[in-house]
Design a protein that fits this description.
By secondary structure, the protein is an all-alpha fold. 72% of the residues lie in helices and 2% in strands. α6 packs antiparallel against α12 and α9 crosses α15.
Length: 539
């Protein structure tokens, strides 16, 4: 096996005839070189480039197709996404309490490469960066106004606030629904995918690519067309999930520029933002993992923490704490209903929000999973699952409670309707800035918010291009830099094409379409992980 897996002195390596890079095409073009897997790179690259040209040339047709695709998938296959996500959560808790949790990624003598702060910063920035900034105010407010599970929001039929007890209940339910979408379930699918990749790479000596996780089922066939198909789906799903997030980031940054400087939001402005940030991501890609993603992730975590503390301290601390604990309790209480264990009757909310989120997280899972796997060598399975599952969940809960809780309190306590109006007019990209405008130093904090979006934008594109490149280079983690530049550029082009060919609806539809087949792949990974861990030495 190639040294790029860096297995060290690890027992229980899988004996395989496959050599990393054996199917690769290596070509030198002047001072540049490429080292790509045949046929994964070609199929993925040509498919995505074809999609870009289709959306640009037939923008109205693509908008119509993607507009119909999302509701069809979310209504017809909601049960697939719901069951899959519940399986991931249950499997993760099983690994935490199982003796298998004592197994160490990379072997019993392996040591972590990164400190806890650096590790948390990288997995958090890659996992949910742009989404938290975009939805942190929007979603709690939306769910408080239009409550899930058939419940009533904070206003009665006449548009007046209900009695205090009813308002409190509606707020807690809205926060609980947000926690459901950003808590255990998404981080469980990330944990499953990243653990599968880490175990089969660092403990079994296989390439760091998605197909390796299926060796217990496919055996040597994993290096043939079944494996090619798995890796191709993983790469396309990653690009789709990234394009969705980049589209959200571009629209929110454009909205912030509109509010601060009066720039008229337009497709042209969003495209310029995508181009500028993609250029910054390319620079980060060239600098590498430690010099690029790690530095940017740590800087962005500090910036996000500063804004978090500012909003908490100068907003409504008591209201935030009340919504955090009340929402957490309601989340636990309503978890069976949210998870569709007892049957949900709020189809509009379930399909429009929950099913979309499940598909989005699943489409992101190969990207986030591979990235987390690359930086998690040396952790025990129990430590890994606990940290990847629980700590980010608490961080997301806190973020949503602070930003969403502050906006909700501005409405119910102060009568400020600015954030509510962004939802009524459906300008979701303005929600954060509408909330910040009621706090001191609003112009400065809005600039910080824009910078936060843009840097998360860069880290997502950077780390995503590293992951797609690894998949499309047959598991090589040290493939030539021009390949990473290619994927970073292509991610930006996909986001631009889909924004022009139907806007955010097209981005969301593509994420759902790629998330559906990958849900089946991820569920199968649970069995493969169990099979792989059973052959490891437990101390």
């Amino acid at each position: 096996m190639s040294e790029s897996t860096d297995t060290g002195n690890v027992p229980n390596l899988i004996e395989t005839e496959y050599e990393i890079g054996q199917d690769n095409i290596e070509v030198s073009i002047g001072p540049f070189g490429i080292d790509i897997h045949n046929p994964v790179f070609l199929i993925t690259g040509l498919s995505v480039i074809g999609l870009v040209f289709f959306c640009l040339i037939f923008d109205e047709t693509s908008a119509s197709i993607f507009g119909a695709l999302r509701p069809w998938l979310t209504s017809q296959f909601d049960w697939v996404f719901a069951i899959s996500m519940n399986i991931f959560v249950l499997f993760c808790f099983y690994l935490i309490i199982s003796p298998l949790g004592r197994i160490r990624i990379g072997g019993q003598d392996a040591e972590p490469e990164y400190s806890y702060p650096s590790w948390f910063a990288m997995l958090f920035a890659a996992g949910m960066g742009i989404g938290l900034v975009f939805y942190g105010v929007l979603e709690p407010m939306n769910h408080t106004l239009s409550a899930p599970l058939g419940q009533q929001g904070v206003f009665d039929a006449d548009g007046n606030l209900r009695d205090p007890a009813a308002v409190k209940q509606a707020v807690e339910l809205g926060i609980a629904a947000t926690i459901f979408h950003w808590g255990l379930h998404p981080w469980a699918v990330y944990a499953v995918v990243s653990l599968a990749l880490a175990i089969f790479c660092y403990n079994k000596g296989l390439p760091l690519t998605v197909r390796s996780a299926f060796y217990p089922i496919l055996g040597e066939r994993v290096w043939g067309w079944p494996g090619h198909l798995i890796d191709t789906l993983a790469a396309i799903a990653t690009l789709a999930g990234l394009a969705t997030s980049l589209g959200f980031g571009a629209t929110q940054a454009a909205a912030g520029l509109e509010r601060l400087f009066g720039l008229e939001p337009s497709a042209t402005l969003e495209i310029v933002i995508i181009i500028v940030v993609t250029g910054a991501a390319i620079i980060s890609v060239v600098r590498g993992l430690d010099g690029g993603v790690k530095v940017l992730s740590e800087a962005n975590m500090l910036l996000a923490l500063a804004l978090f503390v500012f909003v908490f301290a100068l907003g409504s601390p008591l209201a935030v704490l009340s919504s955090f604990f009340g929402g957490a309790i309601t989340y636990v209480k309503e978890l069976p209903a949210f998870s569709n264990w007892v049957g949900r009757t709020d189809d509009g909310f379930f399909h429009g929000w929950t099913t979309f989120y499940w598909a989005w997280w699943i489409s992101w899972s190969p990207f986030v999973g591979m990235f987390i796997a690359r930086v998690s060598r040396g952790r025990t399975v129990r430590e890994f699952i606990t940290c990847v599952l629980l700590i980010p969940t608490l961080a997301c809960m806190s973020w949503m409670a602070v930003f969403g809780g502050t906006a909700i309190d501005q409405l119910v306590s102060d009568g400020y309707t600015g954030v509510q109006q962004t939802i009524t007019d459906w300008r979701p990209e303005l929600s954060l800035f509408a909330m910040l405008s009621e706090l001191p130093l609003s112009a400065f904090t809005s600039v910080v918010g824009i910078i936060l979006v843009l840097v998360f934008f860069v880290t997502s594109s950077d780390s995503g291009s590293l992951v797609v490149d690894t998949i499309c280079a047959g598991g090589k983690v040290d493939a030539p830099v021009p390949q990473r530049v290619f994927w970073a550029s292509l991610e930006g082009l996909v986001a631009i094409a889909l924004l022009l060919g139907g806007g955010l609806a097209s981005l969301q539809a593509l994420a759902i379409a790629t998330g559906f087949p990958f849900a089946i792949i991820c569920v199968t990974m649970c069995y493969c992980i169990w099979k792989g861990l059973r052959t490891e030495t437990v101390k």
